[in-house]
């Protein structure tokens, strides 16, 4: 069995049997009110809002990974970045947000891929402000970038994450780019890139 | 029939306006208000707010049906859960501008503002607008009494008008 | 009407033109307007996702306030718009027969205890009570033995007065304000008083204090009918 279908089966199984659930709209509305509040606090300086959301996500990621490892029973390190991608999309996103983004657009060196979100529960109900800037500057779901960065850092992977498109901006897809910067090795002093 | 639809906020402030004509019985969907009538429409809608406020706390229905009349202009009302008012002014064509169907106007939505058919058609129109209104206000960036500027919302209201009225 | 929309905002004979809006939409029509409103009515997400977001909301708020009261006020403010939205969303979803705007305090509180609570927290609130103090006829209580929002926050000792149910209080306040029953709603953890109290260490009372005009109207309507 491929690692893709293995991951997908594992994600489904955990979601069905081991996850306590709440109404999706409670989560969606809570996220919405968080973003709206940050926009207000920073007077619609969307670059700053993106940063704040990323930072929140990072904090979440640092803590979430433990939960993820416990739920998925996969203490074993992924053997390569492609396997990591499968686990992120089909287990990680599945068990927290009940969605499975599509993995695509790998670079030749297997260090960069995209997650394409067919469904994005965080953005249900959202229409960006019609102020001539939000659709060019705000990444509404930017918290997800931080979550990935934080969670992967805890398992010795330094990644860079950012959205490159969002249906809320009028694009046809919502796509996040994930780049492996390096594996953080405890044994060795950090190398400079 | 010519229609003027307005959504009025809790401070009696307009949040959305849309003018259209009937699409029934060969209607082209264009409003036939004179310039004078057009200015009057806003005034009529505004003055009917008082009547709505009178029934607001005694009738829990959302669709309040016909609430007011000013000469040949009829006002139907729908109140949202948060007491935002949907008001539809409908004005049958005056005899000089009638273009057809004069002989069987008694029950037609296009010509008779008080028939049960019209009442039902307006109910359906409001229901469809309400669904889209709820979608508009669900956005975390929407705050009470903000003008609704979404072009998709406008298109949806237009579509509901074409479909039912 | 002096405060009217700019000319042209209401014109157009059946077209959906963008007007002066600059918003772009995906060509495949993936907007809120193209999805049924009931699509996520029964959808579920992980409780953990909510807990993480909620905890971040609290710690973000903490960085921007100076005291517990201010923090609770802020959480209340963040819940408020959710209440406003839920009021319309949940009433929209009612079948036509029961699609009624709440006209009196009791109907409103029932709507909160049953519809709002069940939707957000998967069960009704535990109890409704009216203040027994004759001096405060404007006070009502919604009681939850175990608020979901508190289950996720371990409050630091120095902030033991903090009650994160302030967020839920804000939601209630939003529903009340939206429905035309302006009120102040505060959350209070009640001690282990009364029988069974010790079973629910997190039991929270949401104290709903209506504005005077609400009671005046209620008296007026009661007199009429």
Distance between the termini of chain A: 37 Å
Spans of chain A of at least 5 consecutive residues whose pLDDT stays below 50 are: none
Assembly annotation? heterotrimer
- Per DSSP E runs of 2 or more residues, the count of β-strands of chain A stands at 5
Largest sheet of chain A: 4 strands, antiparallel
What is the correct CATH architecture of chain A? Answer: 2-Layer Sandwich
Describe the fold and architecture.
The complex is a heterotrimer of chains A (193), B (165) and C (225). Chain A has one domain (1-181): Muramoyl-pentapeptide Carboxypeptidase, domain 2 (2-Layer Sandwich). The model of chain A has no long low-confidence stretch (mean pLDDT 92). In chain A, strand 2 (102-104) and strand 3 form a beta hairpin. Chain A has helices at 3-17, 24-41, 46-72, 81-97, 134-137, 143-154; strands at residues 21-23, 102-104, 112-117, 157-165, 174-183. Chain A is built from six helices and five strands, in the order αβαααββααββ. Chain A is globular. Chain B has a single domain (2-164), classed as Beta-Lactamase (2-Layer Sandwich), CATH 3.30.450. Chain B is 35% helix and 22% strand. In chain B, helix 2 (116-138) packs antiparallel against helix 3. The longest helix of chain B is centred in the last third of the chain and has 23 residues, at 116-138. Chain B starts with a strand and ends with a helix. Chain C has two domains: 2-34, no CATH class; 47-224, Trafficking protein particle complex subunit 3 (Muramoyl-pentapeptide Carboxypeptidase, domain 2), CATH 3.30.1380.20. Chain C has a four-stranded antiparallel beta sheet. The longest helix of chain C has 26 residues, at 68-93. Chain C is globular and about 60 Å long. Classes of the chains: A alpha+beta (193), B alpha+beta (165), C alpha+beta (225). Chains in contact: A-B, A-C, B-C. At the B-C interface, strand 2, helix 1, helix 2 and helix 3 of B face helix 2 and helix 6 of C.
């Amino acid at each position: 069995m491929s690692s893709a279908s293995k991951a997908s089966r594992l994600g489904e199984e955990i979601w069905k049997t081991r996850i306590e659930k709440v109404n999706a709209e409670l989560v969606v509305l809570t996220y919405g009110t968080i973003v709206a509040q940050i926009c207000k606090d920073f007077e619609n300086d969307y670059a700053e809002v993106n940063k704040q959301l990323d930072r929140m996500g990072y904090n979440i990621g640092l803590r979430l990974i433990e939960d993820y490892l416990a739920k998925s029973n996969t203490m074993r390190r992924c053997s390569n970045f492609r396997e990591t991608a499968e686990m992120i999309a089909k287990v990680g996103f599945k068990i927290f947000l009940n969605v499975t983004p599509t993995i695509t657009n790998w670079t030749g060196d297997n260090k960069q891929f995209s997650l394409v979100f067919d469904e994005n529960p965080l953005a249900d109900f959202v229409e960006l402000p019609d102020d001539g800037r939000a659709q060019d500057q705000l990444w509404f779901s930017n918290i997800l970038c931080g979550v990935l960065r934080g969670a992967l850092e805890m398992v010795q992977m330094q990644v860079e994450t950012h959205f490159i498109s969002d249906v809320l901006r009028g694009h046809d897809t919502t796509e996040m780019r994930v780049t492996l910067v390096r594996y953080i090795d405890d044994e060795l002093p950090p190398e400079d890139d | 029939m010519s229609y003027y639809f307005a959504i009025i906020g809790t401070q009696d402030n307009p949040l959305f306006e849309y003018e259209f004509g009937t699409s029934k019985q060969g209607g082209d969907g264009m409003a036939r208000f004179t310039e004078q009538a057009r200015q009057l429409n806003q005034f009529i809608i505004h003055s009917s707010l008082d009547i709505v406020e009178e029934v607001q706390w005694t009738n829990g229905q959302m669709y309040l049906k016909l609430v007011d009349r000013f000469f040949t202009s009829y006002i139907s009302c729908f109140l949202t859960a948060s007491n935002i008012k949907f008001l539809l002014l409908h004005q049958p064509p005056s005899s000089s501008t009638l273009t057809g169907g004069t002989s069987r106007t008694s029950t037609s939505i296009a010509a008779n503002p008080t028939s049960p058919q019209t009442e039902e058609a307006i109910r359906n129109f409001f229901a469809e607008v309400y669904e889209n209104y709820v979608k508009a206000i669900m956005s975390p960036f929407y705050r009470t009494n903000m003008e609704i500027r979404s072009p998709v919302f406008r298109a949806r209201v237009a579509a509901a008008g074409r479909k039912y009225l | 009407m002096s405060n009217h929309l700019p000319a042209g905002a209401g014109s157009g004979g059946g077209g959906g033109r963008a007007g002066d809006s600059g918003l772009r939409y995906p060509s495949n029509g993936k907007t809120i307007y193209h999805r049924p409103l009931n699509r996520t009515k029964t959808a579920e997400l992980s409780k953990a996702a909510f807990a993480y977001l909620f905890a971040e909301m609290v710690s973000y708020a903490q960085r921007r306030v100076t005291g517990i009261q201010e923090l609770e006020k802020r959480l209340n403010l963040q819940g408020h718009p959710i209440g406003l939205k839920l009021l319309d969303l949940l009433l929209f979803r009612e079948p036509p027969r029961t699609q009624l705007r709440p006209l009196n305090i009791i109907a409103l509180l029932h709507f909160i205890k049953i519809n709002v609570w069940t939707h957000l927290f998967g069960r009704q609130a535990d109890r409704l009570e009216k203040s027994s103090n004759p001096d405060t006829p404007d006070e009502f209580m919604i009681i939850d033995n175990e608020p979901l929002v508190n289950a996720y926050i371990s409050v630091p000792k120095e902030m033991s007065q903090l009650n994160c149910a302030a967020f839920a209080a804000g939601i209630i306040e939003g529903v009340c304000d939206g429905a035309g029953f302006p009120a102040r709603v505060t959350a209070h953890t009640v001690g282990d008083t009364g029988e069974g109290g010790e079973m629910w260490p997190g039991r929270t009372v949401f104290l709903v204090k209506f504005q005077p005009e609400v009671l005046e109207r209620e008296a007026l309507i009661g007199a009429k009918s």
